[in-house]
Design a protein that fits this description.
- By secondary structure, the protein is of the alpha+beta class.
- The protein folds into 3 domains: about 110 residues, DNA Polymerase III, Chain A, domain 2 (Roll); about 120 residues, Roll (DNA Polymerase III, Chain A, domain 2); about 110 residues, DNA Polymerase III, Chain A, domain 2, CATH 3.10.150.10.
- An 8-stranded antiparallel beta sheet has the order 6-2-3-4-17-16-15-10. Strands 14-11-12-13-25-24-23-18 form an 8-stranded antiparallel beta sheet. It has a 5-stranded antiparallel beta sheet with strand order 5-1-7-8-9.
- A hairpin with a 2-residue loop joins strand 8 and strand 9.
Length: about 375
């Protein structure tokens, strides 16, 4: 193989493929990337057995086609630090030489036949949507997926088609994010799929243009996404996703309208006093306003007030402030609605027309000095 390509474009492809490759994989082959040169195109392939990517670098000059397998991180770091505008790659007899101007690096290669087979995107049961819409959908949900060891299905994002919309759902058992976006040609008989959070985030990373149309597909084993330059695949999580609909309040006793930015700022203000072991901020609603209160033994207490749209006599509920702040960060509306039945019921935050965020309440001790 011998290829001459633009250094910046090569670095971009290596960085994206390298985000899939594991630095300390169970099998050495997974620490490598595969480069395939053909027809004035260079494909960069990477996988960790759970997520795989096929990234195309254009504007290349292929003098000798063929594949080569090289250490992913080493190649990425070397290309990153090169100062030349172009890079020449040539591989033969177990080595791959990278050169740019007077700089050169020789890497040990592996047998391309040992590299795992990376699938290709198929057009069966695909839907098309704007790249920016897909990124926003993932950002509004994936943050709520579980990170700690536990129920395996919660470590992914549920994807399902509902009434000509693509809906994503994520939960860690203490909070739940549900968002949807209209799509053209949503399949009617498509089964729901649990996509690893890493896969969803990588889907977003390969979308370089928010206005670009991307194609998404789900089958029995994997989720796939195609952009102009990339095809990426994520093996589905096998498990039963929680029945999330049961915790979404449909006819709440209380519904409060609040300014999103001000609510986030007040929650952050009060949370500065709250301890790490018991993260809780109480919200006490009265006509037209809410008092936010937090305290921690040995540290002190804090109060904050703000105006809200509330007409009932009073209502109280407490949340982990970090959960509330994180949800509000992904809201693009100026106003939000907080809905709940009582201080023991889930709090539903309506953050947009097709965006719901549910946070489980926290039981807190009485305020200092009160019974």
């Amino acid at each position: 193989m011998k290829v001459i390509c633009d250094r910046a474009k090569l670095h971009e492809g290596l960085a994206i493929a390298g985000s899939v490759v594991s630095g300390k994989a169970a099998k050495p082959i997974y620490e490598n990337i595969c480069l395939v040169a053909s027809d004035d195109k260079l494909e960069i392939l990477g996988t960790d057995a759970e997520v795989s990517i096929r990234f195309s670098v254009d504007d290349v000059s292929v003098e000798e086609p063929g594949p080569t397998v090289v250490p992913g991180k080493v190649m990425l770091d070397f290309v990153r630090d090169l100062s030349g505008e172009t890079v020449t790659m040539r591989s033969d007899d177990g080595t791959c030489v990278l050169s740019s101007g007077s700089d050169e690096c020789e890497l040990v290669t592996m047998d391309p036949d040992e590299f795992p087979v990376i699938p290709r995107f198929t057009d069966a049961k695909t839907v098309s949507l704007q790249g920016g819409s897909f990124i926003r959908l993932v950002q509004q949900t994936a943050f709520a997926a579980a990170r700690e060891p536990g129920r395996y299905a919660m470590h992914g994002v549920l994807a399902e088609f509902d009434d000509d919309s693509l809906k994503l759902v994520a939960t860690d058992g203490r909070r739940l994010a549900v968002a949807s976006v209209p799509v053209d040609g949503a399949p009617k008989d498509q089964e729901s799929a649990i996509v690893p959070t890493k896969g969803m985030n990588l889907f977003c990373r390969v979308i370089s243009d928010a206005l670009e149309q991307v194609q998404v597909a789900f089958d029995e084993q994997q989720a796939s996404l195609r952009t102009k330059n990339a095809e990426i695949f994520a093996r589905l999580i096998d498990g039963e996703f929680p029945r999330y609909a049961a915790v979404i309040t449909s006819d709440p006793a209380f519904a409060i309208e609040a300014d999103r930015e001000l609510l986030a700022r007040k929650m952050r203000l009060v949370s500065n006093v709250v301890g790490d072991e018991a993260r809780a901020v109480s919200l006490s609603f009265s006509p037209g306003q809410v008092e936010l209160f937090g305290f921690a033994a040995g540290r002190g207490e804090a109060k904050a007030h703000m105006e809200v749209g509330f007409k009932d006599e009073k209502a109280e509920i407490a949340f982990n402030p970090d959960f509330v702040i994180e949800g509000l960060k992904h809201c693009q509306e100026d106003k939000v609605w907080i809905e709940f039945n009582d201080h023991t019921s889930p709090g539903k935050f309506r953050l947009g027309e097709n965006y719901i965020y549910v946070v489980m309440p926290i039981t807190v001790a009485a305020k200092p000095g009160k019974a």
